[in-house]
Specification:
heterodimer; A: mainly alpha; Non-ribosomal Peptide Synthetase Peptidyl Carrier Protein, Chain A; globular; B: 378 residues; Peroxisomal Thiolase, Chain A, domain 1; 2 domains; five-stranded mixed sheet; 15 helices; lipid metabolism (chain A); acyl carrier activity (chain A); phosphoprotein (chain A)
Chain lengths: 92, 378
């Protein structure tokens, strides 16, 4: 999976779940301040990422450090590297 | 349409009770931040409350000054969300549930969602009592204001139709089911051929406000609440009885300090069930005889459950404004056990100044609200 495809899938979560416009989704955006998400939304974000990528995130301590969209891209990319089998199952 | 629509019980082709599909354009008029914690009942309540706030000329400063409250209730917080959650749990799909799922289900969901939407930070209550829910909400708002605890409330109720609700009524033989009548004629309060209720859904929200406070801000005053009472049978869970309904109306008349002859119209609960209409008719006959016109708008609207008190009170206010009593739709032949009442079958032009509004609910709960038109009270 390419990084672009991974970003596309993550961005789709923000469009579908949080009703954000695709053009708003630039890597430097801060998810709390710029997207006005709150702690309830973060629970849904974790659920959305888990469902989309088939990975377990609820107890991942790195999740608590997420501040920007870039942070999410980096975290999922790292998990993808660590779990190539899971990521390989994703639709291209 | 939700998948459970296919589970709506249909004993014959003549039962008409499908849930409303809320247009995305309408639901998305509520920002996602607020909408995420709303089931349909809370969404209906918020949309209705928007209309009430606009018509009353309320602003954020008044609603957020701690002297405004919110009392809104329903039979179940959101029965459609209860269904979705239960299904997910049974199928062990916990991770499919939204973080907001529980906020859609809890019994006071409509109350806190409306309070949150408008920034209301005073008293928030939700006296859930099935089909008496919203009239109890309005009555409780009246009592809170009389006690000086708040200056105004958004008060009323909301409800939605799902298999949990319809299946339960059907199981009790309380849902209308007839091969002989078209769907639009199934809800027929006080009629000899009545055979049960037809479910509706929606919300009815009113602004209940301390009189001088409303006058000072030059709010349009539609009517004055002059009396309220609620009681229960203490002996029934599936229906009320004529003795307790009569007692409830007499308590409300005493609270209003008026006599039965002072009343121009009784807005009955009458849901078109055999037992319910019989008991309420007997109670109204005992208090008012045949001197006061009586009708139930459930022939037109169906039974909107926990929302019915709010919606039907709004209908009463419209009747006051237009000087007309809405008839008992589909009343062709008055049932013997409902005889001895004045039951209009056509719109009746007359002053509608003082009105008794009843709601009756599972649990043997009764509630009676008495209103006087703004014109008569001025």
């Amino acid at each position: 999976m390419t990084r672009d495809r991974l970003i596309e899938l993550i961005n789709q979560i923000f469009v579908d779940q949080f009703e954000l416009e695709p053009e708003e989704l630039t890597p430097e955006k801060r998810i709390f301040e710029d997207f006005a998400l709150d702690s309830l939304d973060i629970v849904d974000l974790i659920t959305g990422l888990q469902r989309k990528f088939g990975i377990s995130l609820r107890d991942n301590k790195d999740v608590q450090q997420i501040r920007t969209l870039q942070d999410i891209y980096d975290l999922v990319e790292k998990l993808a590297r660590d779990n190539p089998d899971l990521i390989a199952k994703l639709p291209e | 349409m939700p998948e459970w629509q296919g589970l709506v019980p249909v004993g014959s082709d003549h039962i008409s009770a499908a849930p409303v599909a809320v247009s995305p354009e309408i639901s998305k008029s509520i920002k996602r931040h607020y909408r995420r914690s709303m089931g349909n009942a809370a969404l209906f309540a918020t949309l209705a409350a928007q209309q009430a706030v606009a018509e009353s000329g309320l602003d954020a400063e008044i609603l957020g000054n701690g002297r405004a409250g919110c009392i809104i209730s329903s039979t179940i917080g959101s029965s459609s969300e209860v269904y979705e959650s239960t299904k997910a749990v049974i199928e062990q799909r916990f991770n499919d549930l939204s973080a907001c799922q529980f906020f859609r289900i809890v019994s006071h969901s409509s109350a806190f969602n409306v309070a949150n939407f408008f920034g209301i930070n005073g008293v928030q209550l939700s006296p859930c009592s099935a089909c008496a829910s919203s009239l109890q909400s309005i009555g409780l708002a009246y009592e809170q204001i009389l006690a000086g605890r708040q200056e105004l409330f958004l008060a009323g109720g909301s409800d939605e139709v799902t298999p949990i609700v319809l299946g339960s009524f059907r199981h009790l033989y309380a849902l209308a089911d007839s091969d002989e009548l078209p769907p639009e004629e199934l809800s027929r309060p006080f009629d000899a051929r009545r055979c049960g209720l037809v479910c509706g859904e929606g919300a009815g929200i009113l602004v209940v406000e301390e009189y001088e406070h409303a006058r000072r801000r030059q709010a349009p005053v539609l009517a004055e609440i002059i009396g309220y009472a609620t009681n229960c049978t203490g002996s029934q869970i599936s229906q009320s009885d004529s003795a307790s309904i009569e007692a409830c109306m007499r308590l409300a008349l005493a609270d209003a300090q008026i006599a039965p002859d002072d009343v121009d119209y009784v807005s009955a609960h009458a849901t078109s069930t055999v037992a319910g209409d019989r008991e309420e008719a007997a109670a109204i006959r005992a208090v008012f005889g045949d001197r006061v016109p009586v009708s139930s708008v459930k022939g037109q609207l169906g039974h909107t459950l926990g929302a019915s008190g709010g919606i039907e009170t709004a209908a009463v206010l419209a009747m006051m404004r237009h000087g007309v009593i809405l008839p008992n739709a589909n009343l062709a032949v008055v049932a013997e056990d409902c005889a001895g009442l004045d039951l209009p079958t056509a719109p009746r032009q007359q002053p509608v100044r003082t009105v008794v509004k009843n709601c009756i609910a599972f649990g043997g709960v009764n509630a009676t609200l008495i209103m006087r038109s703004a014109e008569a009270g001025a």
